[in-house]
Design goal:
The chain has about 325 residues and is α+β, with helices and mostly antiparallel strands. Helices cover about 25% and strands about 25% of the residues. The structure holds zinc ion.
Length: about 325
């Protein structure tokens, strides 16, 4: 979820058209945070007995072809109400509320999820987005639970410059992933680092690390088999990641996916933090069709943990997320 972009200027229409075209071209070619979530009074016998209060261990591995995709939770944050943030169209609030009710998804007193993705492919470890960092960030703790030390990450790719995606790049002013090649789309990087008054997350994690970044063109390869895909709208130069191995593919959406239910089911729905809501909604239609038609694996950064699964088409322009069935290996 974007945190610091309320003052971000909207991109010029010419730019959004340019990036939409780039999107089409690229697509054609191609312990959970106990402290934040535990109630003050233990609600379950397990919590009362001192056992882990939450299910899972903060990471989830999925073999895809010859690569391993691991979603690694950065924890959760309290969310008082899903609407209007996650379905922001003012004239469609009743429609979105009805969908939450239909699917028995809590509309109030719930949480936001933050799910960076680790790809292990061709002997490299590629981390996509880094969570919030600071006191709330659980990414490094959960990477260690998965047996991954931060200094073994080969590449860190950033989908876009919002604080909940870049905040974990530094720890106490030092690079968290000291040996990693840092990568981001060139236009996305330049947009953030040239702000007149950059926010602290941008100052600390983008401007402060500018010498570590390799700036990528749209569609450029991160490592063999792993490409960036222009998915504009949430930010003007947002990029997702397409990973291919052994005849299978996964699209790691970042925030191009929006909300796992409302953004998929309702064509034209946009998220409150989308820089250009109409553009974001058009991009979602394109990528959801691509994911559905190609039977791709998909991961959405703010989808509920473990945030990995597939999609299916309900009707023209309307899609549904299919969370993977839990496996233990
Ligand atoms: Zn986000």
């Amino acid at each position: 979820m974007p945190q610091d972009d309320r003052t971000a200027p909207r991109p010029a229409r010419r730019d959004t058209l340019r990036f939409l075209t780039a999107t089409g071209a690229a697509l054609a070619a191609a312990p959970l945070a106990r402290a934040q979530t535990a109630p003050a009074t233990p609600a379950t016998p397990a919590a009362a007995s001192g056992a882990m209060a939450m299910n899972g261990s903060g990471f989830y591995r999925q073999k895809i072809g010859d690569m391993t995709l691991t979603t690694v939770s950065d924890g959760t944050a309290a969310l008082a109400a899903v609407l209007p943030t996650w379905g922001a169209n003012p004239d469609r609030q009743a429609e979105f509320a009805a969908t939450l009710a239909e699917y028995s998804v809590a509309a109030t007193n719930t949480v936001n999820h933050f799910n960076p993705v680790l790809l292990e492919i061709g002997g490299k470890r590629i981390l996509i987005d880094t969570g919030r960092g600071g006191a709330n960030g659980q990414l490094v703790a959960n990477l260690r639970r998965a047996g991954i030390e931060p200094d073994t990450i080969s590449v860190v790719f950033i989908t876009h410059g919002h604080g909940d995606h870049i905040g974990g790049l530094t720890t106490n002013g030092k690079p968290t992933f000291a040996n990693a090649q840092h990568m981001i789309n060139e236009a996305e990087f330049n947009f953030w680092v040239t702000q007149a008054n950059p926010n602290d997350a941008v100052k600390n994690n983008l401007i402060g690390l500018k010498d570590k970044f390799k700036l990528l063109k749209s569609g450029e390869e991160i490592v063999p088999g792993v490409l960036t895909v222009a998915t504009p709208g949430h930010t003007a130069n947002h990029h997702s990641v397409l990973a291919q191995s052994g005849g299978q593919s996964a699209l790691i959406l970042g925030d191009a996916g929006g909300h796992f239910l409302i953004s998929l089911k309702h064509e034209g729905a946009y998220v409150g933090f989308d820089t250009d809501g109409a553009q974001a909604a058009r991009t979602r239609q394109e990528i959801f069709a691509r994911i559905t038609d190609g039977k791709l694996w998909v991961s959405g950064y703010h989808f509920p943990f473990p945030a990995i699964g597939h999609m299916r088409r309900l009707a023209p322009g309307s899609f549904e997320y299919e969370p993977t069935l839990w496996n233990w290996s």
